Amino acid sequence: MSATPKKNRAGRRILATAAGLATVGALVAALPAGADDRGESQARHHGRTVDVQLLSFNDLHGNLEPPAGSSGQVTRTNPDGTTEKIDAGGVEYLATHLRTARKGNPYSVTAAAGDMIGGSPLMSGLFHDEPTIEALNKLKLDVTSVGNHEFDEGAKELARMQNGGCHPTGGCYEKGKKFRGAKFPYLAANVTDEKTGRPILDPYFVWERKGVKIGFIGVTLEGTPNIVTAEGVKGLQFGDEVETINKYTKVLERKGVKSIVALIHEGGAPASTSYNYDCDSPGAGDGISGPVVDIAKKLSPQVDALVTGHTHQAYVCTVPDPSGKPRMVTSASSFGKLYTDTTLTYDRRTKDIVRTSVESANHVVSRDVPKAADMTSLIQRWNTLAAPIAGKPQGFISADINGRGSTAHEKPLGDLIADAQLAGLAPADKGGAQIALMNPGGIRSDLVFKASGAEGDGVVTYGEAFTVQPFTNMMNVVDLTGAQLVAALQQQVSGSNEASPKILQVSKGFTYTLDMTKTGAARVVTGSVKLNGEPIDPAKSYRVAMNEFLAGGGDGFPALAQGKNKLVGASDLDLFNAYLAANSSATAPIAPPKADRITVVQ
Fold first, then answer.
1. What Rg value do the Cα atoms of the chain yield, rounded?
2. So which residues are the signal peptide here (predicted)?
């Protein structure tokens, strides 16, 4: 342990069993609180071992300003069993928390597990996430894996994020300034060029400090092509996470690097949404499920810890490796609301991590600390550039309309977005849409009634609408038979989506029943699928609106890719803003939809 006092940890601690390690721990603990860095450094060098602090986070998604509404909150379980919501996030606060955590820790490395960019609010997204890369440089991020959203604009744009240079069409956004790119390496071990077979970016990175070496291997989920537009992953292949990490683990070992951390943009689902939930109860890893559990159980025992992401969940678990030895698996929610502090005890003689002494915990990026001045300056600078667009009013709402913050299968904001798409594409010359479908993952935030700036309560600004739908997907209207439409509904809860259903948000007039007491495709009660009260005819053709991502079969919906007679319409954001303008006013704001189109049997 550090000589300076550490925060109380709600995470896992696996006690050292070796007598020698216990002796070292006792000597370190005996040092006076508040010892200076020189004393701590001497303590950390005592004997064979040295403590390395690993700070990590994931899924920032360009959220530099504090996220609004439920997107900016985490849940904590109190000792008496009650829960409370805590406002969290904002890079001004994240910087302060990380810098405070690093104090007194001469061996400190900061890593991330992907989706640093993409799906970003206007302030970053408008400038192709250059502001976020600049902020991460200031945060002194040492390394990150890529995530699926790093490919939203394709491999060439990702290379620009790494290497710098002005945007090919947008140019340089600030006079006299050229984007310099990331000072940290993006790792993409399992993303290869389909022609050369080589990783498009570095597969691993070795962090070194005074003879201590820790290797980082970064991968994104193998299924990235299923959740990114075809254009974004064109020419790329995505390999198996376990095979790739095990391959590069051997490479690092041959180079003499035996302490290894995997940065994996794939995650799990803890049994509780509380960030301090004990997911090792009743036994190691019993409280978590999902893809990362299978990955963790198969990865080489030589990998000492897994920093994960993608599911936007918070967990600190110990999942046994193939040899049965406990291994730390962590994730820090999303949007910069948490960070994980992990202590890795490094043995200088074996050059490996003493796994039995690894400890870790998630900490809230609370907003009760001073803002980091350099981050405040960065936000103000980019907000000034964005202001002419960001603050423009688009419409009015009477209360919060939850999207990302809703845990229900059918989300009020999902209904509103689908209605906007139907309204914009129903005219015959716009596509003649009868139904609109919206993917839930494309809803990136809530619409919050409380003013975010000077616009006034209930006013939806362009910046707020952009935060909800930041991808600017072009809308498609296609012919689908009733049978294909029902097949798409079944694919919400079967195939690749069976373990984690993706429930499409539907426009008004389209209704059906979802029976969650059943399994797989049977969860969709086929006889209940109706349009304006009339049962869907399997043989009849319907005009269905959806964004280009869904129309390409994204998110595990191959049935939607079977559409015929495609008409390309306006962007999803343009339709959303047009609907807000046409259907709301200061005296007649839009109320939250009832979200009663999908009947759910639990």
1. 25
2. 1-35
Distances (CA, A) of 36 to 2, 105, 210, 354, 506: 11, 10, 19, 25, 60
**Is the pLDDT at 34 greater than 90, yes or no?**
no
536 CB neighbour count, 10 Å cutoff = 21
- What's the chain's length in residues? 602
Reference 199, options 163, 150, 248, 246; nearest CA is: 248
Long-range contacts of 317-323 (CB under 8 A, 24+ apart): 317/12, 317/268, 317/270, 317/279, 317/280, 317/284, 317/285, 317/287, 317/288, 318/12, 318/14, 318/280, 318/284, 318/285, 319/284, 319/285, 319/288, 319/293, 320/284, 320/285, 321/296, 321/297, 322/297, 322/298
CA–CA gap between residue 253 and residue 218 (Å, rounded):
16
Rounded Cα distance between 285 and 277, Å, is: 12
Token pair 């890079």 in the structure block, residue: 91
Query: How many CB atoms neighbour CB 32 within 10 A?
Result: 8
Distances (CA, A) of 329 to 253, 278, 337, 408, 426: 21, 13, 18, 27, 48
Mean pLDDT in residue range 281-295: 95
Burial environment of residue 273 by CB neighbours within 10 A (0 to 12, 13 to 18, 19 or more): middle
- Domains of the chain, start order: 49-373 (3.60.21.10), 393-600 (3.90.780.10)
Instruction: List all residues 6 or more positions away from 84 whose beta carbon is below 8 Å from its beta carbon.
Output: 75, 76, 78
Which position has the token pair 């601690």? 13
Closest CA to 18 of 481, 354, 505, 413: 354
Tokens of 359: 């400890």
Q: Identify the pLDDT of residue 69.
A: 87
Residue with tokens 């090792």: 280
10 Å Cβ neighbour count for 384? 9
Q: What is the amino acid identity at position 343? A: T
Q: Which two tokens stand for residue 558?
A: 């191959």
Q: What distance in Å separates the CA atoms of residue 167 and residue 382, rounded to the nearest whole number?
A: 16
Q: Answer for the pair 491, 483: CB distance below 8 angstroms, yes or no.
A: no
Residue 481 backbone dihedrals phi, psi, to 5 degrees: -75, 165
Residue written as tokens 């902020």? 135
Pick the more confident residue, 408 or 26: 408
**pTM for this entry:** 0.88
pLDDT > 70 in the chain, percent: 92
Give, in order, the Cα–Cα distances in Å from 100 to each of 37, 108, 308: 14, 12, 23
Reduce the DSSP state of residue 548 to 3 states and report it: helix
State the Cα–Cα distance between residues 158 and 324, nearest whole angstrom: 38
Taking the C-alpha atoms of residue 28 and residue 36, their distance in angstroms, rounded to an integer, is 13
Nearest to 281, CA basis, from 12, 1, 517, 35? 12
Distance CA 233, CA 224 (A): 8
CB-count burial class (<10 Å; 0-12, 13-18, 19+) for 588: exposed
**Tokens 């959303």, located at residue:** 576
